Amino acid sequence: MPDMQPLSAGFGVEVAGVDLARGLSPSTFAELERAFYDHQVLALRAQELTPPQFVAWARRFGPPQPHVIDQFHHPEDPNILILSNVKRDGQPTGLQDAGTYFHTDYSYLQVPARATTLYSRVAPKVGGDTLFANQQAAYDDLPDAMKRRIEPLVAIHHYGNRNDQDEGSRTVASVLTDEQKAKMPVITHRIARPHPVTGRKSLYAVSGSSFGIVGMPDDEARALLDELAAHATQQKYLLRFRYGVGDVVIWDNASLLHSATLIDPSDARTLWRITVLEPSRDAAAPQLLAPTYANGGM
Ligand code: SIN
Fold first, then answer.
1. What CA–CA distance (Å, rounded) separates 135 from 190?
2. pLDDT of residue 164
3. Which tens digit of pLDDT belongs to each residue from 136-151?
4. CATH number belonging to the domain at 3-279, selected among 1.10.10.60, 3.20.20.70, 3.40.50.620, 3.60.130.10
5. 3-class state of residue 36 by DSSP
């Protein structure tokens, strides 16, 4: 059984003694998958992976979904999105910022992300950490009156950052081409969303892609989403992860918000990223409600 040490008092574990390049036995993967749902963030330090090995790791958690920003797909495999501030011959080699605001990956899709995994290739000298915010804890701590208020509410999502839509800003969502924008739907998700596997409720994507609430005037909806986002991103819910070269991180998008942090653009930072989808709704329940999670408090 792999050794696991907490990354913070609240959530996240660092897993030792696993070499992802060698692949994972069914029993080791079962341990890691369980830890993924129990701890929400897993970190495996100093891995040495080829693109196919990194993709094989991600596939254990679900089907990879290439990012809509296709300019920075890895040449060997489009499932890998290159995040990088490094320029070659004046041209970007990757997507410089993949969300320097709290968000949940692919919450702008009807079938959103189950997990995102990053593989650090070049670590900056200063900063470049990823912040995670525990949305299960944030939901649990809400006053009962607020839990009752949001229980029936459904948020309206589309690609973007509700708090910054200035395409010249670094805290805007990564800017899409007109063709990419045309592919982006408007969809809905519950605000108090049960986890698709464990059933445990989280505040879901109250920061980032949520722009309104079904049946609620816009100003009231924005005010409520902003209030929930301020609650959900308090220091007490945060974990800060600092990368070394080779570090692999994977996180549970259903129960977390995350944010990249702004760094000096001349301090090189490169990661590979793969995002895998939740199972489609029709297939989800029978396939994934393992007995250990079946009583997880819908
Ligand atoms: C992401 O939001 O997927 C990337 C996070 C990071 O670059 O720290």
1. 13
2. 82
3. 999 999 999 999 999 9
4. 3.60.130.10
5. helix
Query: 137 alpha carbon to ligand 1 midpoint, in Å?
Result: 21
CA distance 40 to 195: 12
- Quote the pTM value: 0.91
Distance 186 CA to ligand 1 centre (A): 23
Q: Which amino acid is at 132?
A: F
Tens digits of residue pLDDT in 68-98: 989 999 999 999 999 999 999 999 999 998 8
Measured in degrees and rounded to the nearest 5, phi and psi for residue 260 equal -70, 165
What's the CA-to-centroid distance between 148 and ligand 1, angstroms?
A: 33
Given ligand 1 and candidates 69, 83, 271, which is best to mutate, with the most ligand atoms within 8 Å of its CB?
83
Strands 192-194, 270-277: pairing is unpaired
